[in-house]
């Protein structure tokens, strides 16, 4: 008989341990799951009293998390995760080695031209972080590679040395090319420290500015730098101006946003003539501009904010170009003279329609590159200065395509990032003169990849209210559609963010084990246009969850899966989706991975002191003021709707320093579910104690976490090797 191992805290006030836990399958009975103490806590809103006995898991000193009991509980859950996964470590390692073998050990980016230099990132053999280098653009063969003239401008491995977590934020070279402003996050909190490096001497300037976010922008003469800072609640709220050679304490405030629901961003116009300041919540925005040569000038407003008017702006040779939803929810593209930017002077360049959804744009001297979606199909359109339009030819209809590194304003070449469910990531240069699409780099799969072994499909599934939900599917050609294959179904469904049908080399480890992989393009995303987003938010939020369940049932009916053999995954708002669909149809799923899940929706939307809450009300509703929003959110909030019963195997993850979905949401969810679930299915919580929303930061460390998820799925479905 195996020796039983109890995970108990030294303080019985924080956790209770049980000696016989029926929740785990027989092969895991050597470990006992932590059980968090229930502490009385309640509040009343709109005449309804809510009991929340796990409220204590929210540290009162957040964003500092130092409560010994909370940390002990999270560490106990991590120890339990490790003990349960220990017998599966061989499978995790096998999967990791497979996934790692598909990464080019000394991978590199395609060089891009900027200000007389070519820039490129690369990995050293087996490195976790990038090295950034550059070389003069006027040398022989400079376009194709660095040659002997390359110099390192930033060494991420050196910056990351000794850090549990490292993520590069900004990388902004001065106009004269002599200085680099960069920022880094070393704990996952997304509060970046800004530094300036002299690229001639290689020395760092003594300046260090904390709590920045986004990319800084240089003044035209490189004498000053503008940047965005976050407040104590992680809201980007100020644009500041730093004059080189002066102490950071003397930096002036260029713009400050007082509305707690609005976030501020900063960018440089495509023409490099203006600095652009945007302030927005999820449905309303406004923009200001400052001449790049006069950064001490007062920002000038284009169009004052009005509720539900979203617009963004860029500048192109004598005019501003604007994307706006002032006439159609799928947006329009407009232009206005530089000397008369008021909304009354805006003239249309491209009209959105029920079929055409204008998602974004970049400006260049002689054309505008428009990222669009027509009837759900992604594409790139070019609008020349004479008003003529060109569609960039793409190899496949169902694909993921976006604008790549396009730093040069005066250009006749457009860089694109492209992939599909079966086509590895490809960097294309589109040449406007010839209309040719040049492949600059196709992602190499060192361990081998034969595209002909796989097939991608696109179908629609009828939701219960009659909506037709698109589904992207990939499988091996020799995997039969007969209901016997396991299915991995992914979804997100929020914020108008579409999950593109793109390539994943890690996914091959599932496909080659007989899985069918599917993406449900559910409402809440903007896969079919802005209306698709609207139909999954606010009062129609439950459509998102219903769509996902209905897609799964349709796929089962069509032979792509069998009920109970469907593994599902989602993160953040997609983690909320996981919690909601598990509550709705627990018997449908064979395994669930909920990453940094937004599962405590009601409590978070009632807490306006949290970083994102006021800005989130246009997406979810304001339950503080609106009793109907309170009732609706309560009716689907995964944490609030947990009930006694059988639940599928679940892996839940969190990040202690996560500012987007705070660590206590997954912790409270798991703590509550442990007391309610029956049966022996595993329930695991893994909290990254030194990371945030995106998990581990190194390229191989992050892939190891993918391998852990896949191993959990295989084990839960009885397919572990």
Q: What's this entry about, in short?
A:
By secondary structure, this protein is of the alpha+beta class.
Structure description:
Among the domains are: 163-309, Methylamine Dehydrogenase, Chain H (7 Propeller); 448-716, Alpha/Beta hydrolase fold, catalytic domain (Rossmann fold). Helix 2 (89-101) packs across helix 12. It is an alpha+beta fold. Helix content is 18%, strand content 33%. The protein has an 8-stranded mixed sheet, with helices on both faces. It contains 12 helices and 41 strands.
Sheet/helix structural class: alpha+beta
Across the major sheet, the strand order is 32-33-35-34-36-37-39-41
Strand residue percentage: 25-35%
**CATH homologous superfamily heading of the domain at 448-716:** Alpha/Beta hydrolase fold, catalytic domain
Distance between the termini: 24 Å
The share of residues in helices is 10-25%
Count up the helices: 12
The average pLDDT value, as a whole number, equals 93
The CATH architecture category of the domain at 448-716 equals 3-Layer(aba) Sandwich
Q: In total, how many beta strands?
A: 41
How would a crystallographer describe the biggest sheet? Answer: 8 strands, mixed
Gyration radius (Cα, Å) is 26 Å
- Unreliable sequence segments: 1-29
What best-fitting shape do the alpha-carbon axes yield? globular
CATH class term of the domain at 448-716:
Alpha Beta
